[in-house]
Amino acid sequence: MRKSPNFIVIYADDLGFGDLGCYGASNLPTPNLDRMAKEGIQFNQTYATAATCTPSRYSLLTGSYPWRNPKAKILKGDAPMIIDDGEWTLPKILKRANYKSAVVGKWHIGLGDGDINWNEKISKTPLDVGFDQSFIMAATNDRVPCVYIDGREVENLDPQDPLEVHYGNKNPFPEEPTGRQNPEHLKLMHNDHQHFDSIVNGVGRIGFCKGGQSAQWNDETMTDTFLEKSKQFISDNQYNPFFLYFALHQPHVPRIPSPRFRAYTQQGPRGDVIAELDWCVGQLIDTLKDLNLAEDTLVLFSSDNGPILEDGYADQAKELVGDHKPAGPLRGGKYSLFDGGTRVPTLVWGPGRIPSMESNALISQVDLLASFASLAGIKMTPNETADSLDLSEALLGNDLKGRDCLVTEGFGAKTLIRKNHWVYIPPYEGEPLFGDKGTETGNLSDPQLYDLNSDLGQRQNLADANPEKLKELASLLEDIKANSNPELERSASKSEAIFS
Ligand code: NG6
Ligand code: CA
User: Fold this and answer.
1) Residues 409 and 375 placed together within one structural domain of the fold
2) What is the CA radius of gyration of the chain?
């Protein structure tokens, strides 16, 4: 077994804490992920930093909380790159130990540095923030452009049919069909007023596009495409250390599985794409085994934010969900300040290195940067790690405690703090429900305090009953936001002790 493992992060999109068999889902077949959980560590207290995608992904890669960067909010498909040149990223750090890195799948952290010309080389891509290879979709699968970007270029683009992309209220391509004006072209109907712009593959997307026909992705083969690219990268790098960030699109909308998984579950497209995701993970694990890399690789599976049933398309997710609880016992989901927004299924697998167990260590995805660096034997200074703590011992199953506290955010960078088993949500204006999607936002004009030990579902607000705790957490949150992170100082003195 090699001392420093390869790292693979498999990142699902909008998968909830209750969406896998190993976390209690009873009528969704997720045998591969359940096996990973059984053979490795199932973490019950791991958090994405945000209840939406861009900010969580930004933190995972940079080791920095998203609310420190005002640009880290849900991005349009043509938004500029939000990682600055001077920022550390996981692939940049791992380069110090000669890791080769690739991103395959959903990016959504911005591209280019202003107006993108999709027909030329793109100036800022994952290749500019440390990745050696990149095969991505720009944003989400419900947003234009609906093309793959290989390195700096749109794949399969015909120069005779240039691709144009536009976001805004006014459609600059009135001759092209839209979901709003041409619903007869749709094979999947939108049910809000955002997912009805340009039609690609019979699905209305957010944003307008024109041209680039030959480059358009096929939603049904997207998983196979990403899987093939990942397998190729692993195989090409089997003799050197590597980091693969495999960012899958399931179960984000539009949920269009390969025909092999159509009607595979009782839960309609949302269940089917989760089954497809599970299959894909199984294929990746098989690849590692076939190449004899299983013992040299640490695979971490997680999700970027909590679940949502309906998010823009009439795909029967609500009607068919039955008894299944996508967020498990947690309150809220995607967009929410409650735990269902950010507490996500998290598995770590690595035969020979990772024991078979469950862990309640408190971990934030922001910690992956410092933890992977540490596992790769890379020494970092505290200012390089920003908010990221070295929780490598927790990832290996040796430290069962993890952090004391972490900050997460709901929709719109509204921050909250968890310390040990206490959660404090500051007073926030806004609707109690997110649009007509049914998710509870957690907004309340009064402060909220919950004790997760006695009240996992966050139903009993103890703010009035425990003013001291409330004050303690409120001031800790302010401290961290003002940049003095007490935990980081603690971990810095710990690492000095280790390295001196
Ligand atoms: C929202 C979209 C949603 C999804 C989300 C991003 C509407 C009403 N909602 O604005 O469908 O695309 O952005 O999801 O359009 S995320 O997982 O990438 O954060
Ligand atoms: Ca997401």
Assistant:
1) no
2) 22
Boundary (domain end) residue, out of 372, 395, 418: 395
Q: Does a structural domain hold residue 363?
A: yes
Residue 350's CATH number: 3.40.720.10
Residue with CA closest to ligand 1 atom 15:
194
Q: Choose the residue to mutate in 206, 248, 255 for probing ligand 1, maximizing ligand atoms within 8 Å of C-beta.
A: 206
Residues 136 and 275 in one domain: yes
Residue among 57, 59, 73, 74 whose CB has most ligand 1 atoms within 8 A, to mutate? 74
- pLDDT (tens digit, 9 = 90+) per residue, 286-318? 999 999 999 999 999 999 999 999 999 999 999
Q: What is the CATH number for 467?
A: 3.30.1120.10
* Domain finish residue from 339, 363, 395: 395
Same-domain status, 291 and 345:
yes
Is the CB of 312 within 6 Å of ligand 1? yes
- Count other Cβ atoms within 10 Å, centred on residue 493: 11
pLDDT in tens, 399-449: 999 999 999 999 999 999 999 999 999 999 999 999 877 899 999 999 999
Nearest CA to ligand 1 atom 13: 74
Listed residues: CB within 5 A of ion ligand 2: 13-14, 53, 304-305
